[in-house]
Specification:
This protein is mainly alpha-helical. The protein contains two helices and no strands.
Length: 102
């Protein structure tokens, strides 16, 4: 089953690649050349950046997930009317309908 590269959100992939680069760079600075510690720190820093980017309401117009794409599946059903339908016998009198006058 080949991957359809036309369906890939390349901007989202690029943003995640930048996150990984930054996380790895910071982890290598903090680990003082210890590879195991750098790998653990990189995973923690990446998780923190990803959660901040995805769930913090920063209002930036960049992608936050790939689930926001529109579906190509169309549904068949009754079309919604463009203007609301008026009732066939609208009530326009709002006076009480009691039998005696006051």
């Amino acid at each position: 089953m080949p991957i359809d590269l036309g369906q890939v959100d390349w901007l989202y992939v690029a943003v995640l690649a930048v996150f990984v680069f930054v996380a790895n760079f910071v982890a290598n600075l903090l680990s003082f050349k210890r590879r195991g510690l750098a790998a653990i720190l990189a995973a923690i820093v990446f998780a923190a950046i990803f959660v901040f980017w995805t769930y913090y309401p920063h209002g930036l117009p960049l992608p936050t997930s790939i689930t926001g794409k529109k579906s190509t599946v169309t549904t068949v059903g009754p079309a919604a009317p463009t203007t609301p339908q008026k009732p066939s016998n609208p009530v326009t009198d709002i006076t009480p309908s009691s039998g005696h006058a006051q």
